[in-house]
Design brief:
Blueprint: E1 4-15, E2 18-29, E3 32-38, H1 44-51, E4 59-64, E5 67-68, H2 74-80, E6 82-85, H3 97-101, E7 108-109, E8 112-113, H4 115-129, H5 144-157, E9 162-166, H6 174-189, E10 193-197, H7 201-207, E11 210-215, E12 218-224, H8 230-238, E13 258-266, E14 272-279, E15 283-287, H9 294-302, E16 309-314, E17 317-319, H10 324-329, E18 332-335, H11 339-343, H12 350-354, H13 371-385, H14 401-414, E19 419-423, H15 431-446, E20 450-454, H16 458-464, E21 467-472, E22 475-481, H17 487-494
Helix pairs in contact: 4-5, 13-14
């Protein structure tokens, strides 16, 4: 544990309007798992980007295996043995597993690619990692968890000595997470240096040896994981105490009117006879395991996916929602679990994203957009939601995950949505940003909005919901008032298919 393989000293990096890294120190030892934590925008990804050649540093030194180094590109860092396993996988679905692992470095037999050799080398990598994957399988046919394992095998194939895991469990099942942890433990025993970036506190306590916390571009400190508590880490991350007490009773009046009613919805295999009601000022939690049909139900309700049958009522009136445009007209907004793909246009500004759902109200003569009005309303929303951005002219791609989420929320508030569907509202954002999203949701329902919240985090479901709908294999299997809901009841309903 005393063998330091990497030292970053006094790393400084600025972007226009943002001092992203302020003389940060960080080190990695052989045979350790070193967690890197902090709120979104704290500088974690920028620090790793500087290390791997994605960004150039403004000041500071990087010493790797006893020598001062500088990498001008990720390929140079890979060649040196420093590899990132990204949260968003960079695989080509139409190629085989082996072809993906060795893409750009293929073995050849004369002018032709030697697939047999690549398959054999891939088998050796999987044997080393103790995982069972067929190198000839097409990548798109694998689960997300197995695709992640292939990314790790690819990293090992570069003869890596330091592997950086960026939110590796965001889309994995519990079984896949345990398999990943077994691989990481094995890599630690083989003396790899591992940097582990995650927002999940339970994982940090379970898998890491040390934790370095960053805040506002600065290093706050480094702790030995076994000697600190979750509260110690959280306080260092946000500089304040975060309370995560579950809700004990519904805050919705018994006579609150029903604003949304779904009856006997059918939409493919994953939405089978689903019925529920949503009341004014209520947070209705949707719980269940991955693939239970929660997102499928929301997308069918919003018109993003075709509905085979079933009725939807908004404020007592039967409505015919066949497209997202129909849903928006009825006052329904949908915050997708994949905000980068469906929630925002990353290459557009905060102002342009803010009016996407209500653009018709900002169109002037001859189809020209009233940019002054667009800027004014987006500035008001940035202020109301406390979105951290240098200006409304900032590209959304340059914001942290939590602030991107606030831009999506603002978009639907500007469109005057009365019903908001939050699908995994805090996925990929840190504990401090989570708190802000929770406070925002509570404020919205106090103002008379109604929220459907889909979440895979049990603590989030129990903390935020007034009522909870549980799904399993496309069917609603239970419904609980928050006063009677427990983890055991929810998990029991989430793991069996029963009629309600």
């Amino acid at each position: 544990m005393n063998d330091v393989i990497l030292t970053m000293k006094g790393i400084d990096k600025s972007f226009p309007g943002v001092h992203a890294l302020d003389h940060v120190d960080f080190e990695v030892r052989k045979g350790e798992v070193h967690a890197l934590m902090g709120e979104n925008g704290a500088g974690k990804s920028t620090l790793m980007g500087v290390l791997t050649g994605i960004f150039s540093k403004d000041a500071g030194t990087i010493t790797y295996e006893g020598k001062e180094v500088y990498y001008a590109s990720p390929r140079e860092a890979q060649t040196a043995g420093i590899v990132i396993v990204h949260q968003e996988l960079n695989m080509m679905g139409h190629l085989t597993v082996a072809q993906n692992i060795f893409i750009g470095r293929e073995w050849k037999k004369g002018p032709l690619i030697d697939d047999a050799r690549m398959n054999e080398e891939a088998r050796k990598l999987f044997a080393l990692l103790k995982i069972d994957i067929n190198p000839r399988e097409t990548m798109s046919r694998l689960t997300v968890g197995k695709q992640q394992m292939c990314e790790i095998a690819k990293a090992i194939s570069h003869e890596a000595k330091i592997i950086i895991f960026d939110e590796p469990t965001a889309a994995l099942t519990d079984t896949e997470i345990e398999q990943l942890f077994n691989i990481i433990r094995d890599l630690r025993q083989k003396q790899y240096g591992i940097v582990y970036i995650s927002h999940r506190m339970d994982e940090i306590k379970q898998i890491t040896d040390r934790v370095t916390v960053m805040r506002d571009g600065q290093k706050v400190g480094t702790l030995i994981t076994s000697e600190c508590t979750k509260d110690d880490i959280v306080h260092m991350m946000v500089g304040r105490v975060i309370y995560e007490e579950p809700k004990t009773h519904s805050r919705v009046p018994a006579d609150a009117p029903v604003v949304l009613k779904a009856e006997h919805l059918y939409a493919g295999r994953m939405v089978q006879d689903v019925s529920f009601e949503l009341r004014k000022g209520e947070i209705l939690g949707f719980s269940g395991l991955m693939g239970a049909g929660r997102t499928d139900t929301a997308r069918a309700l919003f018109g993003a996916d075709p509905r085979e049958s079933g009725d939807v009522y908004v404020e007592g009136k039967k409505v015919n929602i066949r497209s997202p445009q129909d849903a928006v007209r009825e006052g329904i907004g949908y915050l997708s679990e994949d905000r980068k793909r469906f929630g925002v246009v990353l290459e557009k500004t905060v102002a342009q994203n803010s009016t996407l759902a209500s653009l018709r109200h900002y169109v002037k003569y001859l189809g020209m957009i009233d940019r002054a009005a667009e800027r004014k309303v987006s500035q008001e929303m940035v202020k109301a939601l406390k979105t951290k951005t240098p200006s409304v002219d900032q590209l959304v791609m340059d914001l942290s995950g939590g602030n991107q989420q606030k831009v999506v929320v603002g978009k639907w508030l500007i469109s005057k949505s009365k019903i908001l569907i939050f699908d995994e509202p805090t996925r990929g954002i840190d504990v401090g940003a989570k708190q802000e999203i929770y406070e925002l949701m509570n404020r919205l329902v106090k103002e008379g909005k109604s929220i459907i919240m889909i979440s895979s985090e049990m603590q989030e479901i129990l903390r935020m919901s007034d009522r909870i709908v549980v799904m399993c294999e496309g069917k609603k299997t239970a419904e609980f008032d928050i006063a009677e809901a427990t983890q055991e009841k929810i998990m029991s309903a989430a793991t069996r298919e029963i009629a309600v």
